[in-house]
UniProtKB/TrEMBL annotation:
Entry annotated with the keyword Chloroplast: no
Protein name: AB hydrolase-1 domain-containing protein
Native source species: Solanum lycopersicum
Gene encoding the protein: LOC101263149
Residues in AB hydrolase-1 domain copies: 126-365
Keyword Aminoacyl-tRNA synthetase: no
Superkingdom, taxonomy of origin: Eukaryota
SUPFAM superfamilies: alpha/beta-Hydrolases (SSF53474)
Length: 384
């Protein structure tokens, strides 16, 4: 008798593998499209090679086997191993059905793999480009070329995002903000032994600031892109908050259109193009692990954000804070209000740069301009 290896289910509006029939007299029927095999694998598998797709993704895999922007971006990068894996080493299972997941969802045996893309010479001063929520290192693709002549620029994917490892919660990494702080220290140490300039965007800014407060001696400077700075920023916007909801959040996080396209475009003027969208969708198309990770970090962020924003304000206003800090603000941000930001920067004596045509994801809306701005800020500090 055949052994089931994966079951795929799809969103009704996009994919034909699920049929919903409804009438006033008949209940809705959800039909699953399952793949089976006669070999003797002992577990259900919810991951598969890219060309096949993951049984737990809404789409079932890549749209095409032709080369894509995601393939090209992947070819530019490398993996760096950093931050020790915790847990018992038990096989990870999905949080909905409890089925054992495939290889890409399992934690490494020793250290996690972080995907990084570099530009410029390693002999130059390093600039680490850190994406926000939810995004990828790919968001800095327009910034990297602007820095390559004079700096060693490195864009990385956080654990759970892009091409970096996506361990399942409770099986090596739980996606708490404290874990992210500790893991950031580990990956910076693995990337460089020089003093580094950190450029960090959005809600992950609070994590970088927390790290920086304990390692000021390792930083040349800190550039924050639309960070949560006021008490009104301590609550997630609805398009992120819904990703943390019970059951509904798990479902939305498995839909690449909801998890990437809709969320990225809800926070500003950004209109994502199809070839770019395919890079952001790729993790959700090929593995359920990306969605489960997004759900976990959304829950942690919703629970811990208020405390981290309070810490951010205290750290940046402390008299002992010695890191030169610049806040770059996209004025068309629909998630974080500009109200109170200018007053905070004046009171804390940190430089504020306003970008009137940008939204929350500044690097997407004004990549070249931001790259020039970063180069100017870092260059000015180096000449002092």
């Amino acid at each position: 008798m055949a052994t089931l290896h994966s079951c795929s289910f799809s969103s009704l509006h996009s994919f034909p593998s699920v049929t919903l029939k409804y009438s006033r007299t008949q209940p809705r029927i959800l039909r699953f499209n399952c793949r089976s095999s006669s070999d003797d694998k002992e577990d259900y598998l919810l991951d598969a090679p890219v060309s096949v797709g993951d049984g737990f993704s809404f789409s079932g895999g890549k749209y095409s086997d032709e080369p894509s922007p995601a393939d090209e971006w992947f070819d530019r990068g490398k993996f760096v191993k950093a931050y020790p894996v915790s847990g018992t080493g038990e096989k990870a299972k999905d949080p909905i059905f409890g089925l054992t997941m495939g290889e890409s969802s399992q934690a490494s045996s020793d250290l996690f793999r972080w995907f990084c893309v570099e530009s410029g010479s390693s002999n130059n001063s390093p600039i680490l480009l850190i994406h926000g929520l939810p995004s990828q290192a790919y968001s800095y693709r327009k910034v990297l070329p602007m820095l390559e002549n004079n700096y060693h620029a490195i864009a990385l994917d956080w654990l759970g995002f892009g091409f970096s490892d996506k361990p399942q919660p409770k099986y090596g990494f739980d996606y708490t903000l404290d874990e992210y702080v500790a893991s950031l220290e580990s990956v910076i140490n693995a990337l460089t032994d020089k003093k580094v300039t950190l450029v960090v965007q959005g809600y992950f800014s609070a994590i970088a600031i927390k790290y920086a407060s304990n390692h000021q001696e390792k930083l040349n400077g800190l550039i924050l892109l639309n960070p949560p700075l006021t008490i009104n920023h301590a609550k997630l916007p609805s398009s992120l908050s819904v990703l943390s909801n019970f059951l509904l959040g798990e479902i939305f996080c498995q839909d690449p259109l909801r998890a990437s396209d809709k969320t990225l475009q809800s926070c500003g003027p950004y209109q994502i193009k199809e070839d770019v969208a395919m890079v952001y969708r790729r993790p959700y198309l090929t593995s359920g692990s990306a969605g489960f990770a997004l759900n976990a970090i959304s829950k942690a962020m919703k629970k811990q954000l208020k405390g981290y924003v309070e810490d951010t304000r205290a750290i940046l206003m402390d008299n002992n804070w010695s890191v030169q800090t610049t806040v770059c603000w996209g004025q068309r941000d629909r998630w974080l209000s500009f109200d109170g930001v200018e007053d905070f920067c004046k009171e804390s004596k940190h430089r504020l740069v306003e970008l009137p045509m940008s939204g929350h994801h500044v690097q997407e809306d004004s990549g070249e301009e931001l790259g020039q701005l970063i180069a100017g800020i870092v260059g000015k500090r180096s000449s002092l």
